[in-house]
Write a structure and sequence with these properties.
Elements lengths: L21 E4 L5 H12 L3 E6 L3 H13 L4 E5 L5 H15 L4 E4 L14 H29 L2 E6 L3 H4 L5 H21 L4 E8 L5 H4 L3 H9 L9 H12 L10 E4 L6
Parallel strand pairs: 1-2, 1-4, 2-3, 4-5, 5-6, 6-7
Length: about 260
């Protein structure tokens, strides 16, 4: 009997990877993004942290991590503008020569019920949260597929699964990332590029801190673990998906929500 070898794509070798990897983290200077930037930089990754307007927060983070011996650069741009996305990626390629990881983390909220939500409110959130991920991905994808390696992680939200009163635009944008990630994952799987989502629950950030105390108490009471999540818990999930040895995970959604949505 003749045995026919399977025609599957061979597993990538992890013993020949260049050092260090280079990551682009959008919204990488505050909140969850800052935690991701910090975790990656401390792990030896060269990180390009994107920011839109708060240059002080970005510079302070880069300075802090630089003092620890890490390599972090900051890049201003609006992910909702495709020309800014292309420019930032070009800056990163000129500085580091490669992009291995893309973390689409940048996001905004404009919370109103649908009856009160304007067309501009709707498009503002979709433009940054969903289209921004598309624009950034377009800017790096040819480079990644050409190199035969890439990791893309899109930061979604539990709200993309459950919805929430006053957040139809935000929920639509975060739910849209699920479909975008799964479709793209199928397109680039044989090119050495994986695409996944991390869907945080309620995380202790400035955004959540702005929620009225009584509302926040009610939210926490509905979380089986009984507390808010920490930004570094999201960062660890992202690190796991970016790792070279996570190459067999693609098109997945990793929920980090304390059991809020199962």
């Amino acid at each position: 009997m003749t045995t026919v070898a399977p025609s599957a794509v061979p597993a990538p070798r992890t013993d020949v990877r260049p050092e260090p990897r280079v990551a682009v983290v959008t919204g990488g200077a505050r909140g969850i993004g800052a935690a991701i930037t910090t975790a990656l930089a401390r792990d030896g990754v060269q990180v390009a942290a994107g920011y839109s307007s708060n240059s002080k927060a970005a510079d302070d983070l880069a300075e802090k991590l630089g003092a620890e011996g890490a390599t972090v650069s900051v890049h201003q741009g609006n992910v909702g503008a495709p020309e800014d996305c292309a420019r930032v990626v070009e800056e990163v390629l000129e500085r580091y020569g490669r992009v291995d990881y893309l973390v689409n983390n940048a996001g905004i909220t404009v919370d109103k019920t649908v009856r009160k939500m304007t067309v501009d409110d709707w498009h503002a959130v979709l433009r940054v949260n969903l289209s921004g991920a598309f624009y950034m991905t377009k800017a790096v994808l040819d480079h990644m597929t050409g190199n035969g390696f890439g990791r893309i992680v899109n930061i979604s939200s539990v709200i993309g699964e459950s919805g929430a009163v006053g957040q139809a635009n935000y929920a639509a944008s975060k739910s849209g990332l699920f479909g975008f990630s799964k479709s793209l994952a199928q397109e680039v799987a044989r090119k050495g590029v994986t695409v996944n989502c991390v869907a945080p629950g309620y995380i202790e950030t400035e955004m959540v801190a702005a929620v009225p105390e009584k509302v926040l108490e009610k939210l926490v009471s509905g979380i089986p673990i009984g507390r808010l999540g920490q930004a570094n818990e999201i960062a660890r999930a992202v690190q796991f998906l970016l790792d070279d040895n996570a190459g067999y995970i693609t098109g997945s959604v990793i929920a980090v929500n304390g059991g809020l949505d199962m």
